[in-house]
Structure formats: C-alpha cells, structure tokens
Design a protein that fits this description.
With 434 residues, the chain is an all-alpha fold. It has 17 helices and no strands. It has 2 domains: 336 residues, Amino acid/polyamine transporter I (Up-down Bundle); 74 residues, no CATH class. Its main location: membrane.
Length: 434
C-alpha cells in the first residue's frame, strides 16, 4: 500500500518534474531543425525520426539519469578521466555554448520575427538583442523564469495544432527521399539540438531543485522520480519531434527544395494555422530564444566566476564578451551558424555521449581505468570525423575507410564499444573505488 508521500511523488512531483525536463530540452532554436529534416527525408521520414531522437531525445534523457546518480556538477561528469581533463572539457562545453547556440537564438529571432515584418538588418537585431541579454544577465531577475514557464506551454499548444492540422487534413503522399543515409543523418542533425550538452550543463539544476523540494524523499525515491519523469519527458519530445518531421515530410512538394529552415517553419505554420497564429508563434519563439540566450550567458559567466574565486568582475567581463560574440556571430543566418557548428559538434558530442553512458552504467562497469581509456578511444576515433567536417575528408579517406560506420561520420561508436567490453573483461574482477 502506498503512503501519502509516495502518492504525492507519483502524481504532483512527477508531473512537475516531467514538464521541467521537457522545457529544459524543448528549446525554441530546436524547432527549426525537424521540419526541414522531414522535408528532405520524404518517404523515409520515420527512419530519420528514429535517428534524430537517438541523439536529440534518448541521450539527453540518459544525461539526466546520469545526473541523478552523480548528484554533482558538470565537473563531476568527467573527473574520472582526470581533474585536468574535466576542467578542459568544462571550458570547451561553455565556449561552444556561448559561441554557437547562444548567437543562433538571435539569428532565429531575426529570421522568424524581425526580418519578415520589418526588414531590418541582422546586425541591428543582434545588437539590440544582446544588449538586452547583457542587461538581464547582469541584473538577475525572476521575470524570465516566470516567462519561461508560460512560453513552453504556449509554443507547445500551437505546435500540436499545427501538427494535428497537417496530419489529419493532408494526404500521406510522400516524395522520394533526398537522403542517402537517413538514419545517420538524423543522428547527426540531432547533434544540432545541443540537448546532450544541455543535459550535462543544466541537468544539475533539476537535481538541486528536486533535492530542495523533496527533502523527505530517499535517494532511491528521487532516483525513481527522475527516471519516471525522464521517461515521460522523452515520450513528449519524441512525439513533438516526430510530429514536426512528419509535418515537414507531408509538405515535401509544397516549397522550393532550397528553402531555409526558418522559412519552412514559417511557411508550414502559415498554411496550417493562418497568418495570425503564425505571427503569435514567431513572437513566442523569439521570447523563448531570448530566455535561452540569457540562460547560456548567465550559466557561462557563473562558471568563469567560480573559476576566479567568485569574482564579480570575471562574471561581468564574461557576460560582456559572450554578448559581443553573440552580436558578431548572431548576424549570420541560421543555416550558416548550423554549418559552422558542425566541426565542434563532431568533436565534442561523441565525448559527451560516452561520458553520459559511462555515468549511467553500473559502477562496476565504469571504473576509473575503463572510464579513462574508453573516453580516450572515443577522442582518437572522433578525430577523423572532425577532420572530414573541416574539409580533409578526401585526404584522410584512404586511412580511415576501414573503420566501421566512418562513412556515416560515426566512426567512434564501434571502437568505443569494443574498448568498453574489452576493458571490463580485463578490469572487471578488480574492486571498484566508491
């Protein structure tokens, strides 16, 4: 028989936590990715959906589960490799976050809500946008937190109406796929959500919140709560992402083949919702982008502040430089920023995925020796994919074609798995430090 506390955990806390996790990963910038993926995948939209949700849903949720086991910070995710490696990894993660997804929010805002209605320059949009981001980052306020809680439900309701309209009014006649490798293309496009990085960076915030709100719960109860909430959040993300990919596929013959991501989202929204709802979606997406940018700049500044003995000056300098970088990068279009992000993601994402998985598996399978050598194996076999992404594909091809899945830019997967199995066979019987 359940106690009153267990009943409260299963109903109220589960709902709140699941929605918080969903909101964490359901970033406004991510909305522009699935429709174009479906648009290009055509009749193979379902295969692309599976790939996209592996890296855009499954891995991030596993990252939250890993956080529930660690009960620590981003530094704790990689410290088993070495403290020095962990510090470098943290710097890389925050540098990528402030240099790419943060400016991308300004670019999405410009293309969704500014350019179509006012025609102003991207530079002006970026300047005003990041001036406001800096003001909010320096003067911390709960206004954005409250606003964020309203934005996600609003966007979600509009998207569900858009998806339902497309699914129930259009014929399921798909054009042939433009993709040669739909499943791996979906996985690699899922990298662009940055959700695995989001899981390791801000997942700890969710854990801290649960610890504060559920003080009476045991470790196992909290772990079970997080696992159940993660499952429901994952189902929600899968349905939304899958619905957006399917919607894009249903409009495969309705737009020019070279249409941009934001233009496709606007076009589909206008055809299914009408111009008024399309405008509302643009405004909501822009506000959600803004809260994301403030969160990234604030989080990065907090990290640097901590590294410099809680220096307020370090915080302000980091916030200023982050906003300046946002202005410079944010004036480029979304497609260009996504393209520029590919090399960094081809390097950092495999490491992040492996760190998440190693922190999820039982401790007896993730001793420090296994941890260290599997991560270094992943880094070694990620280098060819990184080099290929910056234009050296043909040069290195003769040397890496023998690596399984290298043609899919996933050459690190099998070597990391083999290293994990072999190292556990070697070290499996040795006692694992607590």
């Amino acid at each position: 028989m359940k106690t009153n506390y267990q009943q409260r955990i299963s109903k109220k806390s589960l709902t709140v936590t699941a929605f918080a996790l969903f909101s964490l990963f359901f970033g406004a910038g991510n909305l522009v990715l699935p429709p174009l993926l479906g648009f290009k995948s055509g009749d193979l939209w379902w295969l692309v959906t599976l790939g996209f949700c592996v890296s855009g849903v499954l891995i991030p949720i596993l990252g939250i589960i890993a956080h529930s086991k660690i009960q620590g910070t981003l530094f704790d995710f990689a410290k088993k490799v070495s403290p020095t490696f962990s510090v470098i990894y943290c710097y890389l993660i925050y540098a990528i976050a402030i240099a790419l997804p943060s400016p991308r929010t300004a670019s999405v805002t410009h293309e969704m809500a500014i350019q179509p209605f006012w025609g102003s320059s991207s530079l002006l949009t970026s300047l005003v946008y990041f001036m406001l981001v800096f003001v909010f980052a320096i003067n911390r306020t709960k206004v954005l937190d409250a606003l964020g809680k309203l934005l996600t439900p609003g966007i979600l309701i509009i998207l569900l109406i858009m998806i339902s309209t497309a699914v129930f009014t259009l014929d399921f006649d798909f054009i042939p796929s433009q993709m040669n490798q739909p499943f791996s293309s979906g996985i690699l496009e899922g990298y662009q959500t940055f959700d695995a990085i989001g899981a390791v960076v801000v997942g700890a915030v969710i854990i801290i919140s649960i610890n504060l709100k559920e003080k009476a719960a045991s470790f196992e109860e909290k772990k079970r709560l997080i696992g159940s909430a993660g499952l429901w959040a994952g189902i929600g993300l899968f349905l939304v992402y899958g619905g957006l990919i399917l919607t894009g596929a249903l409009f495969g013959d309705s737009f020019d083949t070279d249409i941009s991501r934001t233009a496709l989202l606007r076009g589909v929204s206008a055809k299914t919702l009408g111009q008024t709802a399309n405008l509302l979606l643009s405004v909501l997406v822009s506000l959600a982008c803004f809260t994301t940018a403030v969160g990234i700049v604030t989080g990065t500044s907090d990290f640097i502040k901590g590294r410099f003995k809680d220096s307020l000056l370090a915080y302000r300098i980091t916030a200023f430089l982050g906003c300046l970088l946002g202005v410079l990068v944010g004036q480029f279009d979304v497609g260009y920023i996504i393209t520029v992000a590919v090399p960094s993601l081809m390097f950092i994402y495999p490491i992040t995925i492996v760190l998440i998985l190693l922190n999820v598996v039982p401790k007896k399978w993730s001793s420090p020796k296994v941890f260290k050598q599997v991560v270094w194996t992943t880094i070694l076999f990620s280098v060819p994919d990184f080099l290929a992404s910056i234009g050296f594909g043909e040069l290195i091809s003769p040397y890496v074609d023998w690596i399984p899945f290298s043609e899919h830019q996933l050459g690190w997967v099998l070597p990391a798995l083999i290293a994990f199995v072999v190292l556990n066979l070697i070290y499996g019987k040795q006692p694992t430090p607590s």
